[in-house]
Amino acid sequence: MISLKNIELTALRQDESFAFMKFVHTELSKLPADPEEGTSPLTVPRTAFTESFEEYDRALAPTDTKDATAEITACDDRRDRAWYNAFRFTEVMCEHPDETIREYAQLVMKDFERYGSPLSLGQEAETSLLHNLLNDVNSYSESIIRETFNLGPWIDELNDAEEAYEEALHNRAATRGAKTLGQTKAVRRKAEEAYRNLANVINAAVVYVGEAEYVDFIEAVNDHIDRAKAIVKARRTRLANEKEETPAPETGEEANV
Q: What is the 8-class DSSP label of residue 214?
């Protein structure tokens, strides 16, 4: 039986949390409408979520984000070019005369083909796709990526372009006009709690009345949840790798050598 998946909302960054709430708000039209007479189990939690999301939206209302938005667009264009160049280079290498180079290129091409092209996707969907793709490609050994057919510079550029896009996105989020940090946290917690209540009611309704009227909403939100989890997982992996690569400070006798 279908149900809304669990998501650790507190693990999302502020812009990611708001994007998730906005998506859910947009998808509310896929839920059963309130009856003309009386109420449905969804009436109260749906209204509460809508009101709390609108409050969240007002708290994060942009002041002047024109420059920040232009930066995001430029970074998005850069990562599009970086993906295309890495893809085309790998595609050409799949026809390389050397059998070893050709086989390794074809191995990496399978990852590109698995996730498909991000060029026609929205920015958020593209971010999720690139996180997954880079996570897979970066898992190959240095000898395969950099020495065998020299994909390294193209993947480095794609990594840098994706990080620059994410940084630009966070810079824009930082310019949003919340009155105080405390207020922003409060309205975010309120919206997230309202979502949890709504999700619990929807899952309970599916058990009692069946999934027919809920399946479109649940599938859409679950797909978004999967993308959000992929972004969080990729970020945690990257931070863990960076921590492992950072040398510990020298102490005691080692520091005096």
A: T
pLDDT band at 75 (very low <50, low <70, confident <90, very high): very high
pTM of the model: 0.53
Structure-token pair, residue 24: 């859910």
Give the per-residue pLDDT at 70: 85
Reference 145, options 159, 155, 133; nearest CA is 155
Q: What is the 3-state secondary structure (H, E, C) of 30-96?
A: HCCCCCCCCCCCCHHHHHHHHHHHHHHHHHCCECCCHHHHHHHHHHHHHHHHHHHHHHHHHHHHCCC
Is residue 98 within 8 A of residue 123, CB to CB? The reply is: no
Q: How far apart are CA 142 and CA 160, in angstroms?
A: 17
Residue pointed to by tokens 């207020």: 183
Alpha-carbon distance of 213 to 24, in angstroms, equals: 16
